[in-house]
Amino acid sequence: DKFIQVNNLEKTYENGYQAIKSVTFSVKKGDLVCLLGPSGCGKTTTLNMIAGLLNPTGGDIIVNGKSLLNVAPKDRNIGYVFQNYALYPHMTVLQNVMFPMTVGKNKKPKDEAERIAKKFMKLTHIEELADQKPGNLSGGQQQRVSIARALVQEPQILLMDEPLSNLDARLRLKIREEIRNLVKEVGITTLFVTHDQEEALSIGDKIILFHNGVIQQDDKGQDLYLE
Ligand code: ADP
Ligand code: ADP
């Protein structure tokens, strides 16, 4: 039942800084797992290695029994939601959500891409925004577009890096509930990075607590410690 197994993962950056020091954890299929810890402790570095945007300098990442490290990033079938949404400003909402299905080897016929895009836009409550440009949307709406775009490829893993940090406090509570419901409805295994302990406790099936590039705790106790 260990869908993702991260084994003794290490990352030393080109400048010699060791951001990740032998990190080991596992994730069950369908779980929403929070990587929690203060800024600079290595959460983003870990996500980037899973996504293939960075190469580890040690250890392994195994998904469904197979190492990811020899799989090209575009073939890993991983959805990534960034803190700043990273939407294409010149495209409409519908075009943004369709985009992953219009390029590369997963290219789909236009009508099928549109049908799938609309299905996920419905799940994320942005159907009525189809023809808007990202610049006209609120932070919460842009975040929903970014989540829909990450899900249309039906990725095996969803990575979310501080997806709520640019939202105001009230919206943060609402969207985190929506994310939790969506992840459970779609059944997608999700890694959710946050520095907010309360957020992690509320949304996570399990919490992996990072501290200076190592894991301090790996469970869901109420007794987490953050400086
Ligand atoms: P977090 O996501 O927990 O805030 P990061 O993974 O972004 O932490 O960064 C972990 C540490 O690695 C930080 O000290 C950061 O400054 C450092 N770091 C990140 N990227 C690089 C890089 N390209 N070169 C050198 N150090 C880096
Ligand atoms: P996050 O907000 O996710 O922690 P940061 O804002 O720390 O990310 O980092 C943004 C970018 O700067 C990343 O690409 C990261 O690799 C790079 N970076 C962060 N810290 C350093 C560093 N000490 N030296 C070089 N690049 C860094």
From TrEMBL:
Enumerate the spans annotated as ABC transporter domain.
4-227
**Might you report a single GO cellular component term?**
ATP-binding cassette (ABC) transporter complex
Task: Identify the stretch annotated as signal peptide in this record.
Answer: none
Q: Where are the transmembrane segments?
A: none
Q: Does the keyword Nucleotide-binding apply?
A: yes
Record's keyword terms, sorted: ATP-binding, Cell membrane, Membrane, Nucleotide-binding, Transport
Q: Does the keyword Membrane apply?
A: yes
Q: Which GO terms describe its molecular function?
A: ABC-type transporter activity; ATP binding
Q: Which domain of life is it from?
A: Bacteria
Q: What is this protein called?
A: ABC transporter ATP-binding protein
